[in-house]
Amino acid sequence: MTKNDEAISQIRKIRHIISLENGHNPQKLVNYYIQLQKEYPHLIQYKEQQTKVLESPTQQGIEAEA
């Protein structure tokens, strides 16, 4: 096992514990992470997101198959 494998294994264990503590409930997990963001805003780095509007096939000049 490499260092990366061990790090990934540890991260998975921690994420499982967090999920267990929140009853494996997706909504509770989302609320937990939102609360962490509020408590530690200085630890979160947001990247500028570049969004690209995807054209529909007809806007690209491609006819949809019927």
Shape: extended
How does the helix and strand content classify structurally? Answer: mainly alpha
How are helices and strands ordered from N to C? HH
Helical segment count: 2
- Give the mean pLDDT: 82
Q: Give the terminus-to-terminus CA distance.
A: 51 Å
List unreliable stretches of 5+ residues: none
Beta fraction:
under 5%
The description of the largest β-sheet is: none
Q: Radius of gyration in whole Å, from Cα? A: 20 Å
Question: What is the β-strand count?
Answer: 0
Percent helix, as a range, is 40-55%
How is this structure best described in words?
By secondary structure, the protein is mostly helical. It has a domain at 3-42. Helix content is 50%, strand content 0%. It has helices at residues 3-21, 26-39. It starts with a helix and ends in a 27-residue tail after the last helix.
Question: What's the arrangement of secondary structure elements?
Answer:
Layout: H1 3-21, H2 26-39
Entry summary:
This protein has helices spanning 3-21, 26-39.
Q: Which properties best describe this structure?
A:
2 helices, 50% helix, mainly alpha
